[in-house]
Amino acid sequence: MNLRSPLRLLAALSLAGASFFVQAAPDVTVAYQTSADPAKVAQADGAYEQATGANIKWRKFDNGADIIAAIASGDVQIAYLGSSPLTAAITRNVPVETFLIATQLGGSEALVARDGSGINSPQDLVGKKVAVPFVSTGHYSLLAALKHWNIDPSKVTILNLAPPAIVAAWKRGNIDATYVWDPALGTAKENGKVLITSGELGKLGAPTFDAWIVRKDFAAKHPEVVKAFAKVTLDAYADYNKDPKAWLANQGNIDKVVKLSGAKAADIPLLLQGNVYPLAADQAVLLGAPTSKALADTAAFLKEQKKVDAVLPDYAPAVNATFVN
């Protein structure tokens, strides 16, 4: 009996069976913004693609509202956005969950008044034009600041402009102040005065943060991709946090952050040092009651400002620490 043919057949069937179980690399569209953070280096280096094994398409957005529309439609699976638009999305039942706290905001977002605008104190904002992207962390912070100063928002002309439009309006002299982030923030600071930062507002009871979120259906189907994505981000934060001065002294790091954020190289140290980048041990705590409470508090404020219709009874289902543990 000739056993060679059956053996060859068995080998062929084995190979076919093995190839059947090999999954194709998943396609994922990731929304990012121009904020300056240490993980921009990993993004520039292709570390996310290498670690996840996914075919990643990076899409730059100027504000969280546009990101939410894209992720709600299914065009985006993973996204970086601020706590205010995130809260609005969860409240409106967009199927997402927060899997990593990217940044606890400090000086990287601020309210800046133009030199010569006549704004020398918060009360001078009355009757002035202030630009901010609506339903952003800047918008939330602006309203929180006005509330802290006992200023009626209706007495301030608040304009809904995306960061690029803010830069253009600022250069034309069409606005008196803006609450925004870089690179628009850097432009405003060139001939403006900071009235308050998000870090200062946080100490007054209105903290804001940026987060990485994922569509629940994608996370359920590709948990290994989300976990690897989180690890790359946390490794980048650990690299920065172990010696910020040495990290900032590396011109290569600065150049990569500048490339993806649009911020000026000279501003990068101040922007990074003004924020907190939570490490893995911190994430395990933050991605629980602290974030759920922050989302609920933000939702209550947004409802008070008529930016959302209702507040959910519980925001915990939209927070998932699984991918960082």
Question: What does this 3D model show about the protein?
Answer:
The structure is a single chain. With 325 residues, the chain is an alpha/beta fold. The chain is built from 16 helices and ten strands. Strand 6 (129-132), helix 6 and strand 7 (157-160) form a beta-alpha-beta unit. The N and C termini lie far apart (57 Å). The model is unreliable at 15-22 (pLDDT under 50). Belongs to the bacterial solute-binding protein SsuA/TauA family. Keywords: Signal. It holds the Pfam family OpuAC. This is Taurine ABC transporter substrate-binding protein.
Reconstruct the topology from this structure.
Layout lengths: L3 H17 L6 E6 L6 H7 L1 H6 L2 E6 L3 H10 L4 E5 H9 L4 E9 L4 E6 L14 E4 L4 H12 L8 E4 L2 H10 L4 E5 L2 H7 L1 E6 H6 L5 E7 H6 L1 H20 L1 H6 L1 H11 L6 H6 L6 H7 L2 H16 L21
Parallel strand pairs: 1-2, 1-3, 6-7, 6-8
Antiparallel strand pairs: 3-10, 4-10, 5-8, 5-9
Helix pairs in contact: 2-13, 5-16
Task: Give a nutshell description of this structure.
The protein is of the alpha/beta class. The protein has 16 helices and ten strands.
* CATH topology assignment of the largest domain: D-Maltodextrin-Binding Protein, domain 2
The tally of beta strands, per DSSP, is: 10
Q: How would the global form be characterised?
A: globular
Total domain units: 2
CATH superfamily of the largest domain: Periplasmic binding protein-like II
